[in-house]
Amino acid sequence: MRVPGRLNISWVDDNTLKIEMDAGTQTRTLHFGQAAPASAQRSLQGYSVASWETGARAGGFGGGGGGRGGAAPAAPRWGQLKVVTTNTTGGYLLSSRNTYSENAVLTEYFAAHSDFGTDYMTVVTSVEDGGNPRIVSSTFKKEPNGSKFKPTGCEVVR
Hints:
The protein is about 0% helix and about 45% strand. The strands form two sheets. It has an eight-stranded mixed sheet, with no helix packed on it. Strands 6-7 form a two-stranded antiparallel sheet. About 10% of the residues have low confidence. It has no helices and ten strands. It is mostly beta strands.
């Protein structure tokens, strides 16, 4: 979620949200109410468990549970999406070559907001890997449609 690019967000079913990134052709799958199965293999994207947080301290993403075939779920007025990812193979956190291990826990908060008539989504990410958490954020501007979404592969140079 730290590489500049566009996102395509859609519901797979009532309990699964898919986030596709055009930079690197990556896909995140967010599972609502489903813990990682014991047999799940580690991957670069890991296993992500999502939940809606609503209330006075939550940010404004909306919420209320799963979706349905691409349609947004019924949403309370304020909230944010919390995603906890485990079961990764480890990798690079940023272009500065900071690494994280397979034991890392990635916690993300997705919050939608509007500024001066433009809609945005900000993702605040905390990576805990046996020490102080590393915290970063990314902001994405909402596009009117998916016409600019053009997935492009990438290569990691070591």
